[in-house]
Amino acid sequence: MPATIQSIEAMLVDIPTIRPHQLSMTTMAVQTMVIVRMKDSEGLEGVGEATTIGGLAYGPESPESVKLTIDTYFAPLLLGQAADNINTLRVRLDACTRGNNLAKSAIETALLDLQGKRLNRPVSDLLGGAVHQHLPVLWTLASGNTAKDIDEAHSLIAAKRHCDFKLKIGSRSLMDDVRHVAAIKSAVGDSASVRVDVNQAWDEATAARGMAELQAAGIDLVEQPTPMKDLAALVRLSEKFHLPILADEAVADAKDMFSLAAAGFAGAVALKIAKAGGPLRALEVARVADAAGIGLYGGTLLEGTIGSVAALHAWSTLDKIHWGTEMFGPLLMKDDIVVKRLNFHDNGVELPTGPGLGIEIDEDKLTYYRRK
Ligand code: MUC
Ligand code: MG
């Protein structure tokens, strides 16, 4: 008799950020994670996380809606089901519910953690095996102030914590943003790769002017310059400039990746377990991108340690992650809810070892930060 799913609990956990994090659509001072704890009939527990940025500022699921979706719609479909066949449970959820990929990602992560603990294998083994134990991680400079961002970059380069940086732009005028980016690039020089994320803030004409300026300033990558549904604009811009484009909001799942590649896009894609609906599905996006010659990047929705580790297990199985990863979410938060924090060093992070995700919840911290 396989173990069955006995309980699923989804809780909101609020942790302040170390400094304001300014994006084109919101400024974050706190990060809200939805943490899922799933227990089976043998007493094992799997954990998962669904996290987004700024409530509803980033996408159509908020932390509060993710909790409601899991409590009201997913839990009744999963309770009492065999816990050991993730594909069967996925099909069951998809037959009765549409979308809600963030919530699905937390569930898939908890099932993988549970399965890994049952089999005494790390999640990366369940995904075919890790090719990398240490993955590169960039940092986002987004204090909203050029001088502060330059100081932050210099101290992180000196500590060898990060050598690649992403700048969040799009909330100011184009030329203000260009001056901000060019000042940071010239301060860090060739010792760092500097990329920008516009989070859909530009129309195509502004993007064309912006890309020309950013190319001249020595920027390496421009992320989601135009609105997510405007695939034709991304394709045209990718044809016009050598400066590569990273598709983020435009690509959630494998079908989105196929559509963009089939439309003629060349560049790279930000894989995110939250957008895709879990680590397994994010790897499906990677396969399509790879087949189309599109570069891979391990992306984040600024998850805490649980979500970041779930993603790291997935990215660790990829042969080439052309643009590295941005799994720095835990470092943006003032505190953590796990016993042992991730080990960031040498411009990257260690993949945790141990069964499942390889993390343990700190119960006191969870009680403290859990929304009452
Ligand atoms: C995004 O749009 O890429 C990733 C890093 C960061 O600072 O924000 C996220 C979201
Ligand atoms: Mg992005």
Automatic annotation (TrEMBL):
InterPro entries: Chloromuconate_cycloisomerase (IPR013370), Enolase-like_C_sf (IPR036849), Enolase-like_N (IPR029017), Enolase_C-like (IPR029065), Mandel_Rmase/mucon_lact_enz_CS (IPR018110), Mandelate_racemase_C (IPR013342), Mandelate_racemase_N_dom (IPR013341). Pfam families: MR_MLE_C, MR_MLE_N. Gene3D superfamilies: Enolase-like C-terminal domain (3.20.20.120), Enolase-like, N-terminal domain (3.30.390.10). Pathway: Aromatic compound metabolism. Its cofactor is Mn(2+). Residues 146-244 form the Mandelate racemase/muconate lactonizing enzyme C-terminal domain. Belongs to the mandelate racemase/muconate lactonizing enzyme family. This is Muconate cycloisomerase family protein.
